[in-house]
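retry 2 of 3: previous attempt timed out while embedding iron/sulfur cluster. Reduced batch size to 1 and resubmitted. Inputs unchanged:
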Amino acid sequence: MEAILYQTTSNNAVKCAMCAHRCVIPEGKRGICGVRENQMESQ
Ligand code: SF4
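retry 2 succeeded.
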């Protein structure tokens, strides 16, 4: 499922905008909440 409220950045990181933390999540990692994971659709 494609997540909403994020922006892709360089190096396949995503910037999550779901809450005030505004995590920048590297590929394969999770945000502070531990729920949002940067998982590319093609993998
Ligand atoms: S804590 Fe979770 S919901 Fe909030 S910005 Fe980070 S990854 Fe997104």
